[in-house]
Design goal:
The structure holds two protein chains of two kinds. Chain A is an all-alpha fold. Helices cover about 55% and strands about 0% of the residues of chain A. Chain A has seven helices and no strands. Chain A starts with a helix and ends in an 11-residue tail after the last helix. By secondary structure, chain B is mainly beta. In chain B, strand 2 and strand 3 (about 70-75) form a beta hairpin. Chain B is globular and about 90 Å long. The N and C termini of chain B lie far apart (about 100 Å). The chains are: A mainly alpha, B mainly beta.
């Protein structure tokens, strides 16, 4: 029996490469889907999207928001101190906590949507902070979450 | 006439004061809380009192086995949390404080509560915060309470549970001793017995493969004690989060069991092993007739022998050969 060396080489090299591509692509597509997942109920989305942030960020308000993020807000336990969704408790949640450093997510989600989620929580396990934080604190947190999407920001400072 | 009027007014005031004092017998009281295995004394009063209960959630390191450290999440610094005792008809003001040193939000869902989340909706409490709610104890029984903050299984896995007894209106029958035991299953990154500080392993928890199964994981150490001839009542809860307990006391038969904590139902008699599901509890009673160290186990026996689900009831007193005596022991001709 004559073996076609070229065909064998192609099969050995190309098939694994193709399979790797398919797997990676599927993972990335899945990750991208999760990252852009809308957390606000459809019935509320229109009114929530246009909510205006009541706080103009400045060093003081961002510093206070950081204290909430890493303190009584307990956000860091799941979202991680650097906002990458990799906190100590992240592995308990499926889907995993939001990674705030994804630029595309920062672009498509409005301040109002983030404010709504902080207030009401999500079906995927995030508690609502409606009774725990004031509106001012929540808007400041929205600003702090925005910082994770910037290359140079207060949030990235230790 | 004026004198008579004055007298009538005085009598009326006297009656009102007397009525006020009388109703004052139901005045506010703060529930006496105990750490396992102790149980607060029976409530020597009618139901209908205004009772205040205060618990504080904390996150605290402790031993889970010899040389193995674990960070428990607790009510009042112990696992299980304190035993709470109220009476059918009481109105309870429940205050929850979350220690400023906590890293997490905590809350409480009391299975005896009729209302949103068993209290969890009203008690999502950030570190350093305080919350409260009021509820009426309508149904008598023994109830689990636990934290109900996302991710709930993680909070329960770390030890956030305890028992609350709603005594029936006429109380429970008198016994000589009462004790409090709660089983829990724990999931550490390291294998069972691996020394050092061990973190929670969520994958093992999801797979329901605990590294430890414990009674009163971080409570007052020491054996339960009783004397020959006494009747012992155990309030036994199961915090879970996953395993259903086959609760058994080696060398004893439960004379009476309030299965699933169902006070008011006809209790079962002469039970060897009783099932206690996660988020459930039972009351078992038995008279101790013979001195011995009686071993409390989950009779899914690997959990007891290999993973720690063991407790001891030490019974002292005179031998009772009518009930039990060894005929031969340990000799070369003893058989095996």
């Amino acid at each position: 029996m004559k073996i076609n060396v070229k065909l064998l080489f192609a099969a050995v090299l190309v098939i694994p490469l193709y399979l790797t591509f398919v797997v990676l692509h599927t993972d990335m597509a899945q990750a991208a889907d999760d990252a852009y997942d809308v957390k606000v109920p459809e019935s509320k989305l229109a009114e929530v999207k246009v909510l205006k942030n009541a706080i103009t960020p400045n060093e003081k308000s961002l510093s206070e928001a950081k204290a909430i993020f890493t303190g009584k807000g307990t956000c860091f336990n799941c979202h991680g101190e650097n906002g990458r969704g990799d906190g100590e408790l992240a592995s308990s949640f499926e889907p995993p906590p939001r990674n705030f450093t994804i630029p595309g997510w920062q672009k498509v989600r409005t301040d109002g949507e983030i404010f709504y989620v902080i207030t009401n929580g999500t079906e995927s396990g995030m508690p609502g902070f409606g009774d725990m934080l004031t509106d001012e604190e929540k808007w400041s947190l929205v600003n702090y979450v925005r910082e994770f999407g910037k290359s140079k920001s207060l949030a990235s400072k230790k | 006439m004026a004198k008579k009027m004055k007298l009538a007014v005085l009598v009326l005031i006297g009656l009102m004061v007397s009525f006020g004092l009388n109703s004052g017998s139901y005045a506010d009281e703060t529930a006496k809380l105990t750490t396992a295995p102790e149980v607060p004394p029976a409530l020597n009063r009618a139901g209908g009192a205004q009772v205040t209960v205060e618990l504080e959630t904390t996150e605290k390191k402790g031993a889970i086995a010899e040389g193995v450290e674990y960070t428990y999440w607790t009510f009042n610094g112990t696992v299980p949390g304190p035993f709470v005792r109220v009476k059918e008809g009481d109105t309870i003001t429940f205050n929850l404080k979350n220690s400023a040193t906590s890293k997490n939000i905590h809350s409480i869902d009391i299975h005896a509560v009729t209302g949103p989340g068993g209290g969890a909706k009203a008690t999502q409490t950030p570190p350093g915060g305080k919350t409260a709610f009021q509820w009426k104890a309508i149904n008598p029984g023994i109830y689990i309470y636990h934290c109900a903050t996302a991710h709930i299984p993680t909070h329960i896995s770390n030890g956030m549970y305890g028992l609350l007894l709603v005594e029936p209106a006429n109380g429970l029958p008198k016994v000589d001793r009462e004790y409090y035991v709660v089983q829990g299953d724990f999931y550490t990154k390291g294998k069972t017995g691996e020394k050092g500080s061990q973190a929670f392993d969520v994958e093992k928890a999801r797979a329901e493969q605990p590294t430890y199964v414990k009674f009163n994981a971080m409570a007052t150490p020491g054996n339960l004690k009783a004397n020959v001839g006494e009747t012992v009542r155990l309030y036994v809860g199961n915090g879970g989060p996953n395993l259903t307990s086959a609760f058994h006391v080696i060398g004893e038969i439960f004379d009476t069991v309030y299965q699933l904590g169902a006070v008011g139902s006809e209790p079962a008699k002469n039970v060897q092993t009783t099932v206690i599901p996660p988020g459930g509890a039972a009351i078992v009673e038995f008279k101790v007739d013979v001195p011995a160290a009686y071993i409390l186990v989950d009779h899914a026996i690997f959990r007891a022998i290999d993973k720690g689900a063991v407790g001891i009831l030490e019974v002292t007193g005179n031998e009772n050969p009518d009930v039990y005596k060894a005929l031969k022991s340990g000799g070369a001709d003893a058989g095996h």
